[in-house]
Design goal:
The structure is a single chain. With about 400 residues, the protein is α/β, with parallel strands linked by helices. The chain is about 40% helix and about 20% strand. Helix 4 packs across helix 5 (about 120-135) and helix 9 packs across helix 15. The model is unreliable at about 395-403 (pLDDT under 50). Bound molecules: adenosine-5'-triphosphate (ATP) and magnesium ion. Adenosine-5'-triphosphate binds near residues 186, 189, 286, 292 and 295.
Length: about 400
């Protein structure tokens, strides 16, 4: 016997009153997108639940795919069997073994079909006894069992549900709009992107690239990171910004103590232009308070001056270790630690000002006109579309347009 379906529970969505319908539709849509690689699966929506019918697809692989979909609180394997004691016994044993290492269990049964001859008080010991006879050292614990196996006797069959697997939580992708993620090749910004997606936000990304100071491999890193993020939602479009000219000009003409701050301000200005162009209403960054010179309160204040778009900083109040934990869990850490330089490490000054002020930044910037450089960077940006399977680089198309 094998599991024939996965039961999907979505806690938070149930609380969302009027939005519930939209959220359920989005969740179902996102799930079906995710399950494209398992073409036999089908999705059934019932009262406050969804079932993914496996129809022969690999249970564990489908489970792993479902666990990446936001909006799902928890999941369990389940199997529907006929109303026979033999079949039910076999199914509860299957369900018990799904909770590898469980030492205690509890059977909770419910009989909605009253024509079934045994009442639930008798179903529990009948099925529990079968598990006890077929395992070693396992006991029943009705208060705090390692695993609770649910048995529902319905008219059309008996549904047996195994242990809970954690879902990704959050809200279904696409239910709360779009944000423009400033995606570097570091550890932090992909985690920031993930956490924003978790709240139902779709992402586009902007990446500042400074060839020849930064290599193609540094850009590839960002594409690979976006691909990991795409596994949690749908496509991620990366806007690659040629940033060399702006960085060189800053390096030449701005005092070195302020070059970091001013670089960030230029990035923010360009990001806002891209967001505006794309109809995106917010910007997300991986800034975390106190991590580096550019992330003091003074820096954030000075950088933030140049945009009045909402800047979402999911990591602002998180510890580095917590951030690293998440990056490991979501699969971005190993990509982030590849050694290629990003555009900021190359130009990083020896002694960046840790307490910049708006007044000074404005004063230095007022001596040099950057507006044409910023326009040019936006004009010459190109996009790369990345989905969970890979990317399509549109750089060549962009060049065709210029010819
Ligand atoms: P990360 O680990 O995300 O690179 P960080 O700790 O290195 O962050 P900073 O270098 O100060 O921090 O960058 C702060 C934020 O600015 C990043 O999290 C990212 O959102 C944005 N950023 C930095 N460099 C780039 C870049 N080359 N392209 C796009 N965004 C960038
Ligand atoms: Mg970085």
């Amino acid at each position: 016997m094998k599991f024939d379906r996965i039961m999907i529970r979505y806690g938070e969505m149930a609380l969302k009153g009027k939005n519930k319908k939209l959220f359920e539709q989005k969740l179902k849509y996102n799930l079906s997108g995710k399950l494209k690689e398992f073409p036999e699966t089908t999705i059934e929506k019932t009262q406050g639940r969804m079932y993914v019918h496996l129809n022969g697809e690999h249970p564990q692989k489908v489970m792993e795919a479902c666990q990446k979909v936001f909006g799902i609180h928890s999941l369990s394997f389940a199997v529907k069997v006929e109303q026979s004691e033999e079949a039910m016994k076999e199914a509860v044993l299957l369900a018990f073994h799904d909770a590898r290492g469980a030492q205690t269990f509890k059977i909770s049964s419910k009989r909605t079909d009253k024509s079934f001859p045994l009442p639930s008080q008798e179903i529990n010991p009948m099925l529990g006894g079968h598990i006890l006879r077929n395992t070693d050292g396992v006991t029943v614990d009705v208060h705090r069992p390692d695993v609770e196996i649910k048995v529902e006797v319905r008219h059309e069959g008996v549904l047996i549900t195994a242990r809970d697997y954690p879902g990704a939580g959050g809200l279904p992708a696409g239910t709360t709009g779009k944000s423009l993620l400033m995606l570097s090749g570091g550890i932090d910004s992909p985690v920031a992107g993930y956490l924003t997606m978790k709240r139902g936000v779709e992402l586009e990304a902007v990446h500042f690239h400074s060839p020849p100071y930064t290599s193609e491999r540094a850009k590839q890193k960002v594409i690979d990171l976006a691909q990991e993020l795409a596994k949690y939602g749908s496509k991620v479009k990366i806007h690659v910004i040629p940033f060399t000219a702006v960085q060189q000009k800053i390096h030449r003409e701005m005092p070195s103590g302020y070059s970091m701050t001013i670089t960030r301000r230029m990035m923010m200005r360009i990001s806002e232009k891209i967001a505006e162009q794309q109809g995106i209403l917010s910007i997300t960054t991986g800034e975390s308070l106190g991590q580096v010179a550019s992330q003091t309160m003074e820096s954030m204040n000075t950088i933030n001056e140049v945009t009045n778009y909402p800047v979402i900083r999911p990591l602002a109040a998180m510890d580095k270790l917590e951030i690293i934990d998440i990056s490991r869990k979501i699969g971005t850490y190993d990509i982030s630690i590849r050694p290629f330089e990003d555009c900021c490490t190359v130009f990083v000054p020896k002694a960046p000002k840790t307490k910049p002020t708006r007044a000074n930044a404005n004063y230095y910037e007022s001596n040099t006109d950057f507006s044409e450089d910023l326009e040019k960077a936006v004009r010459e940006s190109y996009t790369i579309e990345v989905d969970a399977q890979g990317s399509t680089d549109q750089q060549e198309d962009a060049f065709d347009d210029l010819l």
